[in-house]
Design brief:
Helix content is 34%, strand content 20%. The chain is an alpha/beta fold. Helix 4 (175-188) packs parallel to helix 5 (202-217) and helix 6 packs across helix 7. The two termini are 23 Å apart.
Length: 400
């Protein structure tokens, strides 16, 4: 039996065939849902090099099972801010778990591959049985070269699925999951002909591949497809002429960029009200909700209730708001604590981590695939002037 609880929840039971229950928290507290993947585009890139002093390593907790937590704590800018928030969330998970047998070995990788390799080596030499992190894509292979030598699993936080693989599992918000969910939902609603206008960057390339694959798998067709760089207007004019053959349009950008794309399409003569607009979790942004042309658009994202609850508890504990990705570190620590309690000597093996029933975390259901990527049980949200409205909830279990 596994249990993970706070004082307001009854213990959650599990077997190997059912999802391990991770804490969803006490009564819901009011808070902004935040922007999904605030640093999404950055997790596939390295922060700028800077001579930063490495933060001193520390151990949190007194458990027998040692877990390495590798984050860019001293990296400049948003990277360091995100890392600190994730570290706080990891410590919060330990505090809210019922007597965890875990000791977190917190290591600063300074935001680069060399630092990640050094930090991982330190954690392994101190007895870490699993590594949580790193955050950046380029740091993951450097750290994984050490964990694989020792047959030790890694749960990394990068959004770049190309760095996943044997023994390296990504607990992050992967754009592939968003695309699969939103196209799947649109197909179930009778949409068959799809168009997409995507940014010419790494995120757009991942979305493109997933879009074309899932449209085909659902028996649909791609009626039009374009990508844009700095010149959104040119791509918007090109695709606007081809939209008469489509009944849904996928846009995958965030904030001001997405509003600019919508404006460019409208200026090019596209009738966006005739189309069902579709998006990814990056749409979870106040700027999107305030854009008239995007009203009624649908996007896939975690149910915001989980983050609102988590965010309230985090503010009570730390006096500030968490970054959106702090839940990743919370869920990673909660997961290893639950597995340490219930799964014996095989607790962090690939067999246990890839349990097809998955696990339930702050952001809903998730499971690791054998290739190291993940699948999430996402909600479908509708853009409205007052914020997001759920039109389809998160699944409570994964299908066979």
């Amino acid at each position: 039996m596994a249990e993970l609880r706070d004082p307001s929840l009854k213990p959650l039971q599990t077997t190997r065939r059912t999802a391990v229950g991770l804490i969803l928290g006490a009564p819901m507290l009011a808070a902004c849902s935040g922007v999904q993947q605030t640093l999404t585009s950055q997790f596939g890139q390295q922060p700028p090099d800077a001579a930063q002093p490495q933060q001193q390593a520390q151990a949190v907790g007194n458990g027998r099972v040692k877990v390495g937590l590798v984050l860019p704590l001293s990296a400049p800018g948003n990277a360091g801010v995100a890392a600190t928030s994730m570290k706080n969330a990891a410590e919060m998970a330990l505090a809210e778990f019922n007597n965890p047998d875990i000791q977190l070995l917190v290591k600063d990788d300074t935001g680069n591959p060399q630092g990640a390799q050094f930090a991982t080596q330190q954690a392994l030499d101190e007895g870490a049985e699993i590594i949580l992190g790193p955050l950046f894509a380029q740091s993951v292979p450097a750290a994984a070269s050490l964990t694989r030598q020792r047959n030790i699993s890694m749960i990394a936080f990068s959004t770049d699925s190309s760095v996943a693989g044997r023994g390296v599992y990504l607990l992050s918000f992967l754009p592939e999951s968003d695309v699969n969910r939103i196209i799947g939902y649109a197909a179930s609603a009778g949409k068959r002909s799809y168009a997409a206008l995507l940014p010419e960057n790494a995120y757009g390339s991942v979305v493109e591949a997933a879009f074309k694959q899932v449209v085909s798998s659902k028996g649909g067709r791609v009626a039009a497809f374009e990508k844009y760089g700095a010149d959104r207007a040119g791509a918007a004019r090109t695709i606007a002429q081809a939209l008469t053959g489509a009944d849904a349009l996928l846009l995958a950008d965030d904030g001001d960029a997405l509003a600019g794309v919508a404006d460019a399409l409208t200026a090019a003569g596209a009738d966006l009200r005739r189309l069902q607009l579709l998006g990814t979790g990056l749409w979870d942004n106040p700027r999107v909700f305030a854009t008239p042309a995007l009203q009624g658009g649908l996007y896939a994202a975690p149910d915001p209730a989980g983050f609102r609850n988590f965010s309230g508890r985090y503010r009570t504990r730390y006096g500030q708001d968490p970054v959106r990705t702090a839940t990743l570190a919370y869920d990673a620590v909660a997961l290893v604590a639950a597995l340490a309690r219930t799964q014996g000597n095989k607790r962090f093996s690939g067999e246990v981590l890839t349990n097809p029933s998955g696990f339930a975390g702050i952001d809903g259901l998730f499971r690791f695939r054998p290739d190291g990527t993940n699948e999430r049980g996402l909600a479908v949200m509708k853009v409205a002037a007052g914020g997001a409205q759920a039109v389809a909830g998160s699944p409570k279990s994964f299908g066979a």
